[in-house]
Specification:
Pathway: Carbohydrate degradation; pentose phosphate pathway; D-ribulose 5-phosphate from D-glucose 6-phosphate (oxidative stage): step 1/3. This protein is an alpha/beta fold. The protein has 14 helices and 15 strands. It has a 9-stranded mixed beta sheet with strand order 14-13-12-11-7-10-9-8-15, sandwiched between helices. The chain binds NADPH dihydro-nicotinamide-adenine-dinucleotide phosphate and the ligand O=C1O[C@H](COP(=O)(O)O)[C@@H](O)[C@H](O)[C@H]1O.
């Protein structure tokens, strides 16, 4: 095993991702003694160390963490700041000085993809890429062709074993738990196929809108932001065959194999929506056709899944924030199929609907739910970003997205990218356009 990273550099430290996810993760890792002595914030904004510490405190507090002052001071003492132009070699020379004693620094790209090339060049030029690890965020590229370009850029600077592609859904305990649930419960695995399953639904719904990120979001949209990566990743875990053994390679092969068998999505069976008022947000192009909601039907053409529709949807300004999978088993009668529900968000758990006798003289059925809330039965789960940052510092790849899978994910979504028309308005707080309900025949 390679050495653990002895420094972390956060490119884009002034941004949304660092504030929402990475500072809280670093705080938790500090509490567990897992943060290196050197954590450098890197940005164009001329922040000093004090501004960096203030931003870190604000972000940890806003994450709802009950701050332990000793832990925070410990983290604050490790933070330092480098400000400068991402394209200026002089900025990287200062970074190289600051990392002089670091054997295996970890470079986290919390920056828009447009800046990646400049940073990779800067790190290479300063001799830092040779000994560093790099973490890049999804979406990996903008489409299939640009994802290949990004892969080539990264390969030209960092060894594959030191390149980490984050799809943070892979770091979520309940998402990781899908395959264990499937393969460790012999009661379900024999039923996990087209003989017994009528449909599979995956929903990533967010009650909030673009939260001030509309300028970024308008160039991306729901398909690239969530469907191409998080949702298809969950589909792969639900649909894949059991890996041949418990190595990372076998897992990777099984995941890529099932994605290869998934058909490319069709605009005919896709509904794209945009919440009302989106076009008035700062940064959104006039007449924007960017979707803030997408619902679609995926098919997987193999022995296990032929004929089973996978209904997938994600959107902003929905009635609730919820990430859910519903596996609908075929029923003895219409409307009585058992629903196995995986809740994959903050309130994680599993439930199964079953038919029981309704009390009374007649023997008739009533549907009830056998439900488990993981908060009641499991130890506290660590946040995805905390787990993934910890893994990347260890050089551990298991929970990171793989190039072959990413390539397939782009192939699958490509026909529904950049459609120039057809985005349907929906009221904020609704489940998207009515056409999305018709697509799935009602969502469970
Ligand atoms: N925010 C989120 O919830 C998530 C984000 N991601 C990914 O993480 C990465 C960062 O996202 P996020 O933090 O939201 O991005 P931001 O838009 O907040 O940008 C991050 C920082 O990058 C710098 N930056 C922005 N635009 C430019 C530019 N054109 N040239 C140079 N620097 C620029 C800015 O810092 P400064 O000007 O000070 O240098 C900014 O604070 C992206 O790849 C995104 O796709 C992935 C999952 C979730
Ligand atoms: O990658 C992203 O994910 C978040 C949703 O993540 P979750 O862990 O809160 O489910 C989404 O809000 C964001 O737009 C997207 O970039």
């Amino acid at each position: 095993m390679d050495v653990r990273s002895d420094a972390v550099v956060l490119f884009g430290v002034t941004g949304d991702l660092v504030s929402k996810k990475l500072f809280p993760a670093l705080y938790e890792l500090t509490r567990r003694g897992r943060v290196p002595a050197t954590v450098i914030g890197f940005a164009r904004s001329p922040w000093d160390q004090q501004q960096l510490v203030t931003a870190a405190r604000k972000s940890v507090t806003e994450a709802g963490i009950d701050v332990d002052e000793d832990v925070f001071e410990d983290l604050a003492g490790r933070l330092s700041m480098i400000s400068g132009d991402y394209a200026d070699p002089e900025t990287y020379a200062r970074l190289a000085d600051a990392l002089a004693g670091a054997e295996r620094p970890l470079f986290y790209f919390a920056i828009p993809p447009a800046v990646f090339d400049a940073v990779v060049e800067g790190l290479k030029g300063a001799g830092l890429a040779d000994r560093g690890r790099v973490v890049v965020e999804k979406p990996f590229g903008h489409d299939l062709a640009s994802s290949h370009e990004l892969a080539a850029t990264l390969r030209g600077a960092f060894a594959p074993e030191r390149t980490f592609r984050i799809d943070h859904y892979l770091g979520k305990e309940p998402v990781e738990g899908i395959t264990l649930f499937r393969f460790a419960n012999a009661v379900f695995e024999p039923l996990w196929n087209r003989e017994h399953i009528a449909s599979v639904q995956v929903t990533v719904a967010e009650k909030f809108s673009t939260q001030g990120r509309a300028g970024f979001y308008d160039k991306v949209g729901a398909t690239r932001d969530v469907l191409q990566n998080h949702i298809l990743q969950v589909v792969a875990l639900l649909a894949m065959e059991e890996p041949a053994d418990d190595t990372q390679e076998a897992f990777q092969a099984a995941e890529a194999a099932v994605l290869r068998q998934a058909a490319a999505l069709s605009p005919e069976t896709t509904v794209r929506g945009q919440y009302e008022g989106y076009r008035d947000e700062p940064g959104v192009a006039t007449g924007s056709q960017t979707e803030t909601f997408v619902a679609t039907r995926l098919t997987v053409d193999n022995e296990r899944w032929a004929g089973v529709p996978f209904y997938l949807r994600t959107g902003k300004s929905m009635p609730v924030t919820s990430t859910e999978v519903v596996v609908e088993f075929k029923g003895a009668k219409p409307g009585t199929g058992n629903l196995l529900r995986f809740q994959l968000g903050k309130k994680d758990g599993i439930s199964l609907t079953v038919q029981v006798k309704r009390p009374g003289a007649d023997v008739t059925a009533q549907t009830v739910s056998l439900a488990v809330d993981f908060d009641d039965v499991l130890e506290p789960r660590r946040e995805a970003y905390e787990r993934l940052l910890d893994d990347a510092m260890d050089g551990e790849h298991l929970r990171f997205a793989r190039e072959q899978a990413i390539e397939q994910e782009w192939r699958i979504v490509e026909p529904i990218l950049d459609l120039e028309s057809g985005v349907l308005a929906y009221p904020q707080g609704s489940w998207g356009p009515d056409e999305a309900d018709a697509l799935a025949g009602g969502w469970a």
